[in-house]
Design a protein that fits this description.
With 483 residues, the chain is α+β, with helices and mostly antiparallel strands. Strands 2-3-1-7-4-8-9-10 form an 8-stranded mixed beta sheet, with helices on both faces. Strands 11, 12, 13, 14, 15, 16, 17 and 18 form an 8-stranded antiparallel beta sheet that branches. Strands 5-6 form a two-stranded antiparallel ribbon. Strand 11 and strand 12 form a beta hairpin. The chain is globular.
């Protein structure tokens, strides 16, 4: 094994360096303060690592969208803040008059570059330590919140009006990158908006009501809903994660797929948000590493290599051609809901790295039973009107395109289904299709096309449309050496 190979695969233990946590404290009489809601708010510093439980520091985190307009910063005049910051703070403090400590990014992030980066990489850790997260939506969402407040917290059978769904669809909080990790990390989530007299809605009520409405036939079929409410369609996965999934069940690919339809003002913010959604642990030694490399390190330490199923270019080193380059956005091969524990892997006793739970398929004609399964899924998907023509592989590629696939229409048939690579595969001699069983979609799973050129092995990620269920239609799974 290349002596540097392990170094690029394993990030090391979680960081033990201290995080200076700046909090807004009510009536703390600091040297600098801002008057808001009848109270004076000053910045104080806590050492979050010295507290053993969240109750040691009962603070509330505030989640909101920055927008484009800016206002003066009351603590750092040279660093303007969002014009939404103080209204979001006011709405939160009004609903929690007995809470004395709040964290809001524009005012509480450190201003020295190293401390700021370290804090951004640790957002999952910080939000998970908060006693509550309050999400503050924009004023047009007020009617939807008022309708939710009229139902009991245990009810999930209220259907939001179409105008209320449209307002939530337009709210930037729904589609921002940070929302995912902030919501799923919350020990207790509450929702309000910055309009005067807005109610405070329990997170369960908000998520249940929205999820129930989106599941109703009158909201539209899968394709209609995707076209009419693309932001809420992506947010529906946040609903499911908040209500049921823990970090053990949330794979890197699942997070990457959801993040594909989310917005971030800076590329590194997308990676920081994904880190917080994948793990609450703080990154290991991240000095000198880019945000993409740190994200992969967080996943590797968790034992999940499903980030390899991104459409990013592969690394060029001899032992790294299976691994995505940390440059660029690292988007999922398919931004669609997936499930499964993740892509497991291990280092061999005599060297090399192996991906576990893989099915190795040859390029050959698809079996009729497998073709029937593909046709059955396509017929029940709601993606096509009656009478649309095309072969099974052509219709499968069209469906993948609707779901956000950006790869090649070149199809490689296997006995179990169709494989569509993310980019052109220049060789077919000796070509193998490697399909994972660790993470899946309802119709297939991600995988690789593996081939050789001039005695060098290459990997092109892609989407497999076919039958997977621990085994791939009779094909046994195995561990595949990739380096």
């Amino acid at each position: 094994m290349d002596p540097q190979q392990h170094e690029i695969l394993a990030e090391g233990p979680p960081s033990t360096s201290r995080i200076p946590l700046f909090l807004l404290a009510r009536d703390a009489n600091g040297s600098l303060s801002v008057e808001l809601g009848g109270s004076s708010w000053s910045l104080i510093t806590f050492d979050l690592d010295e507290s053993e439980t969240p109750s040691d520091i009962p603070f509330t985190c505030i989640s909101y969208s920055w927008g484009t307009d800016r206002s003066p910063n009351p603590f750092h005049p040279s660093s303007p803040i969002s014009s939404h910051t103080l209204p979001a703070l006011l709405a939160s403090t009004t609903h929690r008059p007995s809470t004395n400590f709040f964290w809001i990014d524009a005012l509480c992030l450190p201003h020295t570059p190293q401390a700021k980066t370290q804090t951004l990489q640790s957002m999952g850790y910080i939000y998970s330590r908060a006693s509550e997260v309050i999400a503050v939506l924009s004023p047009p969402s007020l009617p939807a919140l008022l309708q939710m407040s009229s139902t009991s917290s245990s009810s999930s059978s209220t259907t939001l009006l179409p105008s209320h769904l449209a307002a939530l669809e337009s709210d930037q909080w729904v589609s921002r990158a940070w929302t995912y990790q902030e919501a799923v990390n919350a020990r207790r989530l509450s929702i309000t908006c910055s309009a005067p007299s807005s109610p405070l809605i329990a997170g369960d009520t908000f998520m249940n009501t929205l999820g129930y409405t989106l599941s109703r036939p009158e909201t539209g079929s899968g394709l209609e809903k995707l076209r009419r409410y693309p932001r809420l369609d992506a947010f529906e996965e946040v609903v499911g994660d908040y209500l049921s999934a823990g970090y053990g069940e949330r794979s890197a690919l699942q997070v990457m797929g959801n993040m594909d339809r989310r917005t971030a003002s800076r590329g590194e913010d997308r990676f920081y948000a994904m880190m917080g959604a994948v793990s609450r642990d703080r990154p290991g030694n991240a000095e000198g590493r880019g945000a993409g490399e740190v994200f992969m390190g967080v996943c590797e330490r968790k034992g999940d290599w499903s980030f390899v199923y991104s459409d990013a270019k592969r690394e060029e080193g001899e032992w790294r051609r299976w691994r995505p380059s940390a440059e660029g956005e690292m988007r999922a091969v398919l931004p669609w809901y997936c499930f499964g524990e993740g892509q497991r892997g291990h280092f061999g006793e005599e060297g090399g790295f192996w991906l576990d739970g893989m099915a190795v398929l040859g390029v050959e004609e698809i079996e009729e039973g497998s073709r029937a399964r593909v046709e059955g899924w396509l017929g029940n998907s709601g993606f096509f009107a009656d009478g649309i023509e095309g072969t099974a592989s052509e219709r499968a590629f069209t469906a993948l395109g609707v779901m956000g696939f950006r790869g090649s229409e070149r199809c490689f048939e296997t006995k179990s289904g169709f494989f569509f690579p993310c980019e052109h595969v220049p060789a077919e001699v000796g070509l193998e299709i490697l399909v994972t069983t660790g993470v899946k979609w309802s119709f297939g799973a991600p995988g690789f096309a593996r081939f050789k050129q001039r005695d060098a092995e290459f990997y092109v990620p892609g989407a497999f449309f076919g039958h997977t269920a621990g085994r791939v239609d009779g094909e046994g799974t195995t561990s595949v050496r990739v380096s």
